[in-house]
Specification:
8 helices; hydrolase; RNA-binding; globular; 178 residues; rRNA processing
Length: 178
Amino acid sequence: MKRIKEIVIVEGKTDTQLLKELYDVDTIETHGLALNDKTLELIKEASLTRGVIVLTDPDYPGLKIRNQVDQVVDNCKHAFVDKKDAIGKKKLGIAEANKEAVKKAIENVVTFSKHAESITWQEFISLDIIGDKKRRMKVYDFFHLGYGNAKTLFKRLNMVGITKKMIEEKLESEGYSD
């Protein structure tokens, strides 16, 4: 079983159980939106010694937790499971996700840098992503950046150092050019 060096930040026990079926891994559970200062401090400490990967549910509470962790941890790693792969019978979440989607997310972690600007707002607008949701979702998928609106995509592209040229090349190779 593959060992994950970093500590994976998840929302709850069932997320931990799923990850332990797939990997030799240590987790810190946020208990959903009940994430408190003590747990944030533990996450911060873990980031200094082993590093952390945030793997939260692809929904609003998951995004809120992800952002809280990102505020206290520099160069935080993020793993994203697509919403369509995380829908269970009655819930949406990592514990309900198919195992292949979780493996794909862990294999495609991204690190956000808070101080980078790899693409300007004008370049972003020129890519025709804002008004085209299908095209925007493709860019999210190509670079494993999770899900969000156009503004979030712009921010994440800059945080991982993706340039306009890289986006154009990817869109073109996948048949999404103008």
